[in-house]
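Handout, section B. The chain below has 262 residues.
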Amino acid sequence: MEDTGHYLAGMRQSPPLVHCITNYVAMNIMANVLLAVGASPAMVHAREEVGEFAGLAQALSVNIGTLDPAWAEAMAEAAGVMRGHGRPWVLDPVGVGATRFRQDVCARLLAEGPTVIRGNSSEILALAGTGAKGRGADAADPVEAAEAAARDLAERSGAVVAVSGPVDFVTDGTAAYRVANGDALMPRVTALGCSLNGVIAAFLPGQAPLPATVAAMACYGIAGEQAARQAAGPGSFQTAFLDALAALTPEDLSADARVTRA
């Protein structure tokens, strides 16, 4: 893939306002992650203003983690505004296989044409209509088991599909990449996975979705690697991770990204 650092530089050159409709657990860390990487976050989910605010944002990130009917309506409305304006948005189908309500909401959101769908292997398998072994928001399937489903989902939805794991898999249904950056401490800090979707959304405005998504995931993983070298455990890792994101340069990203064609 071409120079990954180019996409970080492009995002920081014109820092986007990223509208985040995410779960209660993730709001604080997601806002801090977006600020650290160089974007501007906004947590707006009230039905009375969500459509109007979406019209102001350059990108949207939707996470269904703490779902309820009012939030589901707000998510669909915001996604529709982004689609209408031709602006990018990211869907995180948290625990989609767990309940019929989540499946129905995700089906409605898919109809609004997400630019990127990012989830773990079990979530992508469930969203694609393939059997999955997930338990709530946790994956119980290896990334490799979801690669064919990810390609199929990308072809059917028109979205870039990213499967997170020890080695991430990212595809638009035709081309595909693996991203081998990251650290084992990352899943031990709640909402870091949710926050990745905001970073992906930040990388999308004005940039090609597939390579921008790959670059965002490599950026996130490299920051995790750098943070792990300083951390004594999950608590200190979270602080070090924010610092690493803020300090990461486009040159660092280009030099340290472990991206291969799949």
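Note. The radius of gyration is 16 Å. Compare this with the example in section A.
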